[in-house]
Design a protein that fits this description.
The chain contains 9 helices and 9 strands. It is an alpha/beta fold. About 4% of the residues have low confidence.
């Protein structure tokens, strides 16, 4: 039996649907999905099996114009993910077409991913007419030499199987990189922190988008099979702490309940989740916080 294995980088603008596509491919929720931009900070890898192939997805942070150290570190991580991968999939939104951001990514691919095999996935195809889709496909392929173009809906699953099959068939021959039952190579502590951060992002909307980070400080396996998870939410200002806690602690309580429920579903067992909020004015400039997120602090220079 010939087995194949390799890395596939999903790249695109923020909110193009990369996390939704990854979760659909892998069949489990390993990458944080929200309507807010820039929620995927670390290069989360999901592992999917297709026939005799093992596809390791690198879900890169969305590519955008960086303004701060954290932004720059995220963009550097995205390009590193693309340059290291065996195959690259550029995801764009059908209704937005070839935006300035997408064009900048194409330029970046030409410069940084030389020799890389790149496929195009046009997402959210249900939002446009067939003739517009055809015109966009032609325009994109004139702008860059894609090996193959896929028309998909990551949310509804249309076209995703075809994309996964093509990726599986085009990976290099070789032994599998991960055990069969492993769906993500992120430590569980980081996945747990990402789940809590997702709930915070959804709950707080525009109030504290990037001014907080979550770390799993302690993970204790209990004799009854349950797990006790202690997490710290770092915010940059005192005022942020009040917003996070909410009136009579309602916000943090709701976030804790939602995160715990998802963790229990993910782990398949009971979870005792304890959240603590700490004010750290300079956390955006602390190297330790970056390594917790799987980013390189030096990339932010």
């Amino acid at each position: 039996m010939t087995t194949r294995a390799g890395f596939v980088a999903l790249i695109g603008e923020p909110n193009a649907g990369k996390s939704t596509l990854l979760n659909r491919m892998v069949g489990a929720k390993v990458s944080i999905v929200t309507h807010k931009v820039q929620t995927t900070r670390a290069r989360i890898r999901g592992v999917a099996l297709e026939g005799d192939s093992q596809i390791v997805f690198v879900d890169t942070p969305g590519l955008f114009r960086p303004r701060r150290r954290l932004d720059r570190a995220m963009v550097a991580a995205a390009w590193t993910g693309a340059a290291d991968a065996d195959l690259v999939v550029l995801l764009i939104e059908a209704h937005r077409g070839l935006t300035h951001g997408a064009q900048a990514i194409l330029d970046g691919l030409s410069e940084r991913a030389e020799g890389r095999r790149v496929a195009l996935a046009i997402n959210k195809i249900d939002r446009v007419k067939a003739e517009d889709l055809l015109a966009l496909t032609q325009k994109m392929n004139e702008a860059f030499p894609f090996e193959k173009t896929f028309l998909i809906s990551a949310e509804k699953g249309h076209g995703v199987d075809d994309l996964r099959m093509w990726l599986a068939q085009n990976l290099p021959e070789g032994p599998w990189l991960y055990p069969e039952d492993q769906i993500a190579d992120l430590p569980m502590r980081m996945i747990a922190a990402e789940m809590t951060r997702e709930k915070l992002t959804l709950r707080l909307h525009q109030e504290l988008p990037y001014q907080l980070t979550v770390e799993t400080e302690n993970w204790e396996e209990r004799k009854d099979g349950s797990a006790r998870i202690d997490q710290v939410i770092y915010v940059a200002r005192d005022g942020h702490k009040g917003i996070l806690l909410g009136k009579k602690g309602e916000t943090i309580k709701a976030v804790s309940q939602a995160a715990r429920a998802e963790l229990e579903e993910f782990l398949g067992r009971k979870v005792h989740l304890f959240l603590q909020v700490k004010v750290r004015p300079g956390w955006l400039d602390e190297a330790e916080r970056y390594s917790e997120m799987g980013l390189d602090f030096r990339d932010g220079n």
